Amino acid sequence: MSSVTVRVPAKVNVQLSVGPLREDGYHDLVNVFHAVSIFDEVVAKESESITVVVNGKWSDQVPTDDNNLAIRAARALAKHAGRTYGAELIIQKDIPVAGGMAGGSADAAGALVACNELWGLGLPFEDLMEIAGDLGSDVPFSLLGGTAVGTGRGEQLSELPTGGTFHWVFALANGGLSTASVYAECDRLRAASGAQVPWPQLDDDLMEALGTGDAYSLGAHLSNDLQQAALNLRPELGPTLEAGRQHGALGAIVSGSGPTCAFLAIDALHASDLALSLTSTGAAHTAVAAHGPVRGATLA
Ligand code: C5P
Predict the structure, then answer these.
(1) pLDDT given at position 286
(2) Which of 96, 125, 160 is the endpoint of a domain?
(3) Is the CB–ligand 1 distance for residue 178 below 6 Å?
(4) Which ranges of the chain have pLDDT less than 70?
(5) pLDDT, position 196
(6) First CA to last CA across the chain, in angstroms?
(7) What is the pLDDT of residue 174?
(8) How many structural domains does the chain have?
(9) In this structure, are 280 and 210 located in the same domain?
(10) Pocket perturbation via mutation, ligand 1, pick of 67, 183, 188 by most ligand atoms within 8 A of CB
């Protein structure tokens, strides 16, 4: 096989509950991931060494050196297989970079699936999940897709059944936010308040809303413990969230560590109306309608 193509979705967190800071610098989470229909594409081609080329909307913001998560994924896979392999990875980016939608994790997951195929390794999904967890907290979910609850630092996943398709609008911000700096701001806010940080708990009402496909109830139960920290770092997101609510969003939330804002719509038509309202009023410069859940990293 000389070329393999994999499509990988973005995610939104419908619940992100952040526990106390651990000794290893991470936080224990209850992280309900939901994969949505904004995709990066990763093509792996036969090559002498492992290299990456990034094309698409935000390609200039993606590193192509050793910091590139797709390169690190391909290297980790080769190491796991115990051999030296090469691949040229060509990434077509549609997921915002550093936007809180797991774009880098998607590319890593795509590289794992593509190189597993290109190199004829035939490694089982469980092995790819283990390698993914070492690459980053969100990479296993990019492989799995659907809707799932992540515990630990987010990498220990259980699939959640959902009772239908949910329709979303994502307002993209100019420039990204570093995940580490948003967690650090969250810790700073908590230290300043002096309140004890509770152990994160899965929201039963949210689970029921997902299970029955009730968008109204899901909208009412969206939650993100990182939201205040993201708003402190990017105050202009407050008016964007408010504009979405004014235009009838069932729920409005910062996606993960931000700065992308996610709005839950009633149906597909409402989502396209909402996207248009957000851009035409200037509340967002770009708004994209999408649906979820969708499958994780998949061979095209
Ligand atoms: O795992 P990943 O590399 O995506 O994490 C990026 C950063 O986000 C970590 O260095 C850490 O600062 C923060 N993080 C955290 N707790 C988690 C996941 C991520 O503090 N559960």
Answers:
(1) 95
(2) 160
(3) no
(4) none
(5) 92
(6) 14
(7) 87
(8) 2
(9) yes
(10) 183
Q: Is 180 in the pocket of ligand 1 (CB under 6 A)?
A: yes
**Domain ends where: 160, 183, 208?**
160
Q: In this predicted structure, what is the pLDDT of residue 160?
A: 97
Helices (H), 119-259: 125-135, 139-144, 179-193, 204-212, 215-221, 227-233, 237-246
Structure confidence at residue 215 (pLDDT):
98
Distance between CA atoms of residues 275 and 247, nearest Å: 10
Helix count (H) and strand count (E) of the chain?
Answer: 10, 12
The token pair at 35 is 């994969």
Q: Which pLDDT score is estimated for 58?
A: 84
Evaluate: CB of 187 within 6 angstroms of ligand 1: no
Query: Looking at residue 221, what is its pLDDT?
Result: 98
Annotated active-site residue in 40, 107, 138, 214 = 138
Whether 258 and 230 have beta carbons less than 8 Å apart is answered as yes
Instruction: Look up the domain containing 244 and give its range.
Output: 166-292
From the centroid of its chain, how far is CA 292? 12
Active site residue 57: no
What are residue 287's phi and psi, to 5 degrees? Answer: -135, 135
